[in-house]
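Last lecture ended with a question: if I hand you only a sequence, what can you say about the shape of the protein? Today we answer it with a concrete record. The protein is PspA/IM30 family protein. Below, first the input exactly as provided, then the predicted structure, then a couple of comments.
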Amino acid sequence: MGLFDRIRRVVSANLNDLVNKAEDPEKMLEQAILEMQEDLVQLRQGVAQAIAAQKRTEKQYNDAQNEINKWQRNAQLALQKGDENLARQALERKKTYSDTSTALKTSLDQQSTQVETLKRNLIQLESKISEAKTKKEMLKARITTAKAQEQLEGMVRGMNTNSAMAAFERMEEKVLMQEARAQSAAELAGADLESQFARLESSSDVDDELAALKASLAPASPPNQPQLPPQQQTTPSTNPTQSHEVVDAELESLRKQLDQM
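The predicted structure:
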């Protein structure tokens, strides 16, 4: 393949591509209908001219027929008057009009056929134009729908859906972590409160057991002898048992005061 052939093909391909890109379907449809309507106008003019020519030929044919009839009557009249020479001239004139009439009849038949053909073509073109207008409206609607769909797809392609969904997932994860921290804090607060009450119950049990143990170890005092409180006893005692009893009594008194608080 020669260099010039390759260049020619490249140029042709680029020109075809430019033409295809420059073609607007809607405008092309409008232009096609305009051209068809121009053809319709020209065809109507052609039909009108053909009909006018047909009528003119038909008139000439009828005139020739009238002349034939007239010279036929003239020939008969001349013979009736005994003028054979005049009758011959009348018949010659009749023959001239007969030849003209024959030619006009042939032309008239051809023109009639042509007019009928043009009329059929006119009707077909009008039907095609009507059909083209209907198709044009349908194609315009389809073009509008296609453009809208193309724009919508372009918008969808332009949207950063993955980034948006990732942002939603991150926010959801943060909310879940915050809810988990709040739940953990509530559980820890409840556990601390329960542990405090458990310690109180445990210390109360120990105190009760200690008091019961001390009461079991303390000697019974005489029924009719009142026991003076430790601050009213003035005589010191050197007995260890009595010293323990005084301490226990004071401890018991303090414990009762705490219980009453």
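Comments.
1. Residues 84-158 form the longest helix (75 residues).
2. The CA atoms of residues 6 and 165 lie 52 Å apart.
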